[in-house]
Write a structure and sequence with these properties.
With 475 residues, the chain is mainly alpha-helical. It has one domain: Hydantoin permease (Orthogonal Bundle). Helices cover 75% and strands 0% of the residues. The chain has 18 helices and no strands. The structure holds tryptophan. Tryptophan binds next to helix 1, helix 2, helix 10 and helix 14. The site of tryptophan has 16 residues, from helix 1, helix 2, helix 10 and helix 14.
């Protein structure tokens, strides 16, 4: 098959490279920080089941739909949709949903980098602590030896109260993201993914084994997998879908953009399945890494967003080898976060290159710089502007700070909206022969996919979008 050139002229060097980059985009803070948090808050097993159903019934068809558009379009998100529309005799206005996606990627990147900055800070703290442990001749001691529980948990509050420190971490993380994206698809994104993802999996497996040996696995399994269906409120279902979209990097045209760098189509269906399975597997493994430790130390699994930052560092203090394990744990999250943030920056960067004709470094700098500035608003929302409620007039966001507002608005409104439009476009507008030839699905699987993408996705995502925005409808 002849390789078509993309607008940007770039491409993955192999199918493996694409899969690693796409799995890298999918696996991130969403899997390791948010998924265990949500499972903990929403009562465990019942949430996990709904989540898995969302991933495979709605998420996986959408992953394939986005990759399909990118593969056929060979351009940035907007240009790719336009090309698929042209080949399908559909209106080019469909490309507008790509633009909404591009516009969503950028605020997500802003707050993502701020949260990744916290991870960077904790990597630094525990790295320094591990270094001290080595120097003191006791490398296998617990983390932060001698520090009281209050002091350890107080570190998060101190970090949040310090705009300068938050800003420094945010700056470093965004800088690293920008550097990688500016280097290009091949020399930057692909290279980062091919080094970092294998390292990530080794660390993850290592930490899960550690949890099995030192932690309380039985209780963790019971917690993660025993369903309590009384906990299944419409809000929980809503949250599960939002999390599935976020975790699979759907709804910002991210996989359209990554898909556009595929040169030869072979088994897009199998590739999509691998991405969904890897992403879900990592989320579950993250749960199996975190909860055995939480239970072993008798801590609260429903601590919420502070679980990783307050609960675990204290747990690492009491665990054998905790100084080393704690350090590795935060490095693991950091690695996952970088390979995701580069995908978020790549979406608008490719748009700038394809639609505006900017050079890659210029485009990356413009969007990375702008996202950095918006991130500053987010981090000031933890201290100087802690009273600010940007969408305070809207009951849904009445008591939501700047970062959570951007997170909530993108996650509850923009991602589902773009996901719904993607499924309508691919399910109803895209040329059927094109669907068959470009995805390479067998006739039976093609039929199932077309049913899911044309009917199930628009209706389910639409229903969840509406009830998410107007929760009172369900009362
Ligand atoms: N999926 C990543 C995570 O779970 C975050 C992410 C990367 C993302 N690209 C995205 C989320 C695009 C939404 C849209 O951490």
């Amino acid at each position: 098959m002849v390789a078509t050139t993309t607008t940007t002229g770039e491409g993955w060097s192999s199918r493996t490279a694409f899969i690693l980059a796409a799995v890298g985009a999918a696996v991130g803070l969403g899997n390791i920080w948010r998924f265990p948090t949500l499972a903990g808050e929403s009562g465990g097993g019942a949430f996990v089941i709904v989540y898995i159903a969302c991933v495979f019934l709605l998420g996986l068809p959408l992953v394939l739909a986005e990759i399909f558009i990118g593969k056929v379009g060979q351009s940035d998100a907007v240009g790719s949709i336009r090309r698929v529309a042209a080949k399908s005799n559909a209106s080019s206005s469909w490309s507008l949903f790509g633009l909404v996606g591009v516009m969503a990627a950028f605020p997500i990147l802003s707050f993502y980098s701020v949260v990744a900055g916290w991870v960077l800070y904790y990597s630094g703290v525990l790295g320094a602590d591990f270094f001290q442990a080595i120097m003191s001749g006791d490398p296998f001691r617990g983390a932060l030896a001698g520090e009281s529980r209050e002091a350890i948990q107080g570190r998060m509050g101190n970090l949040f109260a310090d705009p300068g420190l938050l800003l420094t971490m945010h700056f470093l993380f965004m800088g690293a993201t920008l550097f990688i994206v500016a280097r290009g698809v091949h020399a930057g994104i692909e290279k980062a993914a091919t080094y970092l993802m294998p390292a990530f999996f080794v660390l993850l497996i290592g930490l899960v084994i550690y949890g099995m040996i030192e932690g309380d696995v039985a209780q963790a399994m019971a917690f993660l997998f025993t369903p309590d269906f009384s906990k299944l409120t419409p809000q929980v279902i809503n949250t599960a879908l939002g999390q599935a979209l976020f975790s699979l990097s759907l709804g910002v045209a991210g996989l359209i953009t990554y898909g556009s760098y595929i040169k030869e189509s072979s088994g897009l269906g199998a590739t999509s399945a691998m991405i969904a399975i890897a992403d879900t597997g990592v989320a579950l493994l993250a749960g199996l890494m975190i909860f055995p430790i939480v239970f072993a130390v008798g801590l609260d699994p429903a601590a919420g967003p502070t679980l990783v930052f307050q609960t675990l560092p204290f747990a690492f203090q009491t665990m054998p080898g905790g100084a080393l394990i704690g350090f590795l744990f935060f490095v693991l999250i950091l690695v996952a976060a970088v390979t995701s943030s580069i995908s978020l920056l790549e979406v608008p960067t490719a748009w700038g290159i394809g639609e505006r004709g900017w050079s890659r470094p210029k485009s990356a700098l413009i969007f990375g710089g702008a996202a950095f500035l918006v991130g500053i608003l987010c981090l000031l929302g933890y201290n100087v502007w802690s009273d600010v409620r940007p969408l305070g007039f809207w009951p849904l966001f009445a008591d939501t700070d700047i970062l959570d507002t951007i997170d909530g608005f993108t996650g509850k409104v923009m991602l589902p909206l773009v996901a719904m439009l993607t499924s309508i476009f691919v399910g109803w507008k895209a040329d059927r022969t094109l669907l068959a030839t470009e995805t390479g699905l067998s006739p039976a699987v093609l039929k199932i996919w077309r049913f899911l993408i044309a009917w199930v996705c628009p209706l389910a995502v639409g229903a969840i979008l509406v009830t998410g925005l107007f929760p009172s409808l369900l009362d």
